[in-house]
Design brief:
Length: 64
């Protein structure tokens, strides 16, 4: 199954998220695959396309 994750950046600032990704990667649970992402023109939100056969992996990743 494919899932679209829509992330809104706190205070419209995407820098802290990208610094964290640079330093520690996405830390995806087994069974969850990152496919692609893009940021809207105003830099307020990021859209991530993820794939998994078990929706619990999305919850595990978001809550982790």
């Amino acid at each position: 199954m494919l899932f679209m994750i829509i992330e809104t950046f706190r205070d419209g600032d995407m820098i802290p998220i990208y610094e964290r990704l640079r330093d520690s990667d996405r830390k995806l649970p087994d069974g969850l695959k990152y496919l692609n992402s893009w940021i809207e023109p105003g830099f307020a939100r990021c859209f991530q396309l993820m794939e998994t056969d078990d929706a619990r992996r999305i919850q595990e990743w978001v809550l982790g």
